[in-house]
Amino acid sequence: MDINAVMIVLLSVTIVCLLFIMYVMYVRIQQLLKEVEALTGRMEITGTELEQLTKSVEEYKKARG
User: Fold this and answer.
1) 65 contact partners, CB below 8 Å, separation of at least 6
2) What's the pLDDT tens digit per position in 5-58?
3) pTM of this structure
């Protein structure tokens, strides 16, 4: 085997490894995006909830001071 054949094999193996790493990263990014969507759904606050929270804060301020 000459040096060119060895280099081609090494570079091919390297490319395959890098493609696998990219695939694993893609899968992980998709998982994280799903988690972010789930958290966003739980964190959204409606206008009514915000209004009630504002009233509660104002009542608390009046009660303390």
Assistant:
1) none
2) 999 999 999 999 999 999 999 999 999 999 998 888 777 777 788 889 899 999
3) 0.60
3-state DSSP call for residue 1? coil
H-helix segments, 1-65: 3-43, 47-64
CA gyration radius, the chain: 28
**Integer angstrom CA distances of residue 3 from 8, 13, 14, 16:** 9, 15, 16, 20
| Residue 22 vs residues 17, 30, 33, 36, 39: alpha-carbon distances, Å | 9, 12, 16, 21, 26
